[in-house]
Amino acid sequence: MPSTYSYPGVYIEEIPSGVHAIAGASTSNTAFIDFFARGPVDQAVEITSFADFERTFGGLDARSEASYAVLQYYLNGGQIAFVVRVAPAAAVASGWLTGGYGGQPTLEVSAANAGDWGNNLQVAVDTTNIDAKARAIDPTLFNLVVREVVVVNGSPRVANLETYRNLSMSQASPRYCVTVVNNASSLALLTDGGIGQTPAATAGDPIGKPDKATWTKLGDLMNPSPGGDGHAPPAPGSLTTTTWTSTDGQGALLGDPATHTGMYALDRIEPAIFNLMCLPAAAALPDLGLNKVYADATAYCDAKRAFLIIDIPDTTDHTDKMLKWMGAHDGLRDKNAAVYFPRLVIPDALNPSQPRNVAASGTMAGVYARTDTTRGVWKAPAGIGATLSGADVAVRLTDLENGELNPIGVNVLRNFPIYGHVSWGARTLEGADQIGSEWKYIPIRRLALYIEESLYEGTKWAVFEPNDEPLWASLRFNIGSFMQGLFRQEAFQGSSPKDAYFVKCDADTTTQADRDLGIVNVIVGFAPLKPAEFVVIKIQQLAGQSAG
Question: What was the pLDDT predicted at 238?
């Protein structure tokens, strides 16, 4: 506003409204942690389709449980996933291009990330197709081509090809090879040997006719012994730890919170969040490893306001075995976790003659996402609408078998005539009848997590604001508006807002002692909609009724 009113007229003043709209958080962003054929290691990569997954992580791999889980996730309605590749005992295929005097190691070419896929990389160097004027200015210019060759039906095929022209070995050049290639390539990384010499050319014309060039596999390039130039690379290798029954597999999945590896790579996605976590490879670990991985994952999900879908081993293929498995793993019970029985059978594109037995977490994460989109996070991901696309149940259960598992908090996947394969349970692992938890049902728990995350992010503006009635009123208004929006979407019980939720923030919730400590307390309550788990129809026969 103006400091003084100096002339007759109309003055416009804008008065802050105090409105800080609270946006709803995501509900079904799903994290997958596992071994994959390729891709960055210990980095959480956001993908939005299975095609994205194929480009970055190589698609299906018979050694990777989560590669099939990601496929199922998108087949069943998944949208956003954060994929973390872990690679115990992995080596990076690499080798040195030579040049200069005496064939010294000039430029190291390495696969962009660990794994045996790097052994399919080939490189070619061209020093002839360079503009004469450009070469006169920089005599180190060269062209580099990198390609990935895979065998399909017994025949080699170029799967990926990258061409980089007019590269320089001079660090002062805008076309310095290390900077240009490392910033753009999804196949290779370069390391400068430090002698400033152009790599020796290969025969042929890799720029004009790449199929007729003389290509060199990374593993066939020069690999000098350690010492001397100080740039000796590791020997080419491949990922050999492909079973997850070792402490290496357990350690890789868990990672280290200090270095943000394994599951803790998800720390680095902020401000984005994940809501669901799947660790299909953990089901193949011995009991001690399985317990450790899932216990740590549950604690991590609790801290992140996320929900864990636990998988069972493929040997748990009967109701009695599932009952015993639950008895042996009661320590995994948590309000932010759920388990499903049985496992699923899906077509295997890598082995069409033999269907693949897979864990259910990826499929169910997709069902969660689909249900959230069509009905809301407060709707149970179960019922005749919760169909399982592209999957069959490995064991078909009867109602009586279902009745043994449901009371102990095991969600059953069923097959029904007409409806097909569906999710037929909606309990958390605290959902056993004997526990009597208020977080018995998945939709109630996930709705609470959604509200918590939304309010956590949506009220940060209040930090350092004066702690008095104007702040309290603003918090009541903004949080109340958010809760009213959920009420209008029928997320709560009750026919009126006062029956459905409340928001309290005043001198009763925030005492003078709290204010002296810089604390403001807001209490939010809601009446959740519990799923109609048991529909009871009572039929009475009317006897002795006369007409008229």
Answer: 37
